[in-house]
Amino acid sequence: MRYLAFFLIVCLWSCSYNDKTIKVKGSDTEVNLAVNLAEQFYKINRSFSVSISGGGSGLGIASLLNGQADIANSSRPLNDEEDSLFRAKGIVLRTIVFAEDATAFVVRNDFPLDSIDVETLGNVLSGKYTNWKPVTGIDMPINIYGRQSNSGTHSFVSKKLKIEFSPAAKEMNGNAQILQGVRMDVSGIGYVGAGYLLHTGSQAGQVKVLKIKEKANMPGVSPLDETAIKAGRYYFQRPLYQFIPARSWNKVSAFIAFEQSTLGQQLITASGYYIVKQN
């Protein structure tokens, strides 16, 4: 795969000056988008070096605390513990909401379900249901493909459903592993970033994206429906964050300005995400 390890260093050798070297770490939801932005940024700012790595929102935030990153990409806000740690270290952060994403729930293409309501989904992912029979009428064990607890997407889904994930859920390293698991498992269900599905194109065609019903008697809404997302009608849509220490702002400001430029906004849209209007 093009970015198998979710790691890219753009033009590392072109500039060795620390004030032109930007390290971005964090959310796997955002990593493909971040790579695209970094590649295009370098084409017009060749004095900069930008490194991008994933690993989860929690890892990116921890990297800021440890002084190992200039930008943490995160698919969730800081939690209370993280906020306290930054305050204790005297690290002042600037927060940017640079795009909006939707979390997609996927099953295999031949799975006998097209939509699911929020309550039923919670029963499935929490382990209250261990078999698909109450949902589909077919006697099959439920296999859950999800993320580790330090993932922003894991936290987001858990909070939206007001559940703890089933201890039997398989913890995968990222979107690609989840898709691979679901494609090979007739009774599997997983969750990935809708932007990632749109970005990877052919991979999305090998899974079915479930429509989500907020209530059982309501129509289902797809995370791939741009109109629905812009209207705020999809239950699992969320802002994507970038946290930047004040000490790094001067270094990264050119990159942030590029994200907010016409080209940057076009790249965000082309990667399957939605534009957030800047204040």
Please work out how many helical segments DSSP would assign: 11
The geometry reads as: globular
How many discrete structural domains? 2
Cα-based radius of gyration, to the nearest Å: 19 Å
What is the mean predicted local confidence, pLDDT?
Answer: 89
The helical percent reads 25-40%
Q: Note poorly predicted spans.
A: 1-17
| CATH fold category name of the largest domain | D-Maltodextrin-Binding Protein, domain 2
Q: Can you count the beta strands?
A: 12
Cα end-to-end separation: 37 Å
By CATH, the architecture of the largest domain is named 3-Layer(aba) Sandwich
Question: What are the key terms here?
Answer:
two-stranded parallel sheet; D-Maltodextrin-Binding Protein, domain 2; 2 domains; single chain; globular; 279 residues; 10-stranded mixed sheet; 11 helices; alpha/beta
Which secondary structure elements does this structure contain, and how are they paired or packed?
Layout: E1 7-10, E2 21-26, H1 31-44, E3 49-55, H2 57-65, E4 71-74, H3 80-89, E5 93-108, E6 115-117, H4 118-126, H5 133-136, E7 143-147, H6 152-161, E8 170-172, H7 175-183, E9 188-193, H8 194-200, E10 207-209, E11 211-213, H9 226-230, E12 237-245, H10 249-259, H11 262-270
Parallel strand pairs: 2-3, 2-4, 6-11, 7-8, 7-9
Antiparallel strand pairs: 1-3, 4-12, 5-9, 5-10, 5-12
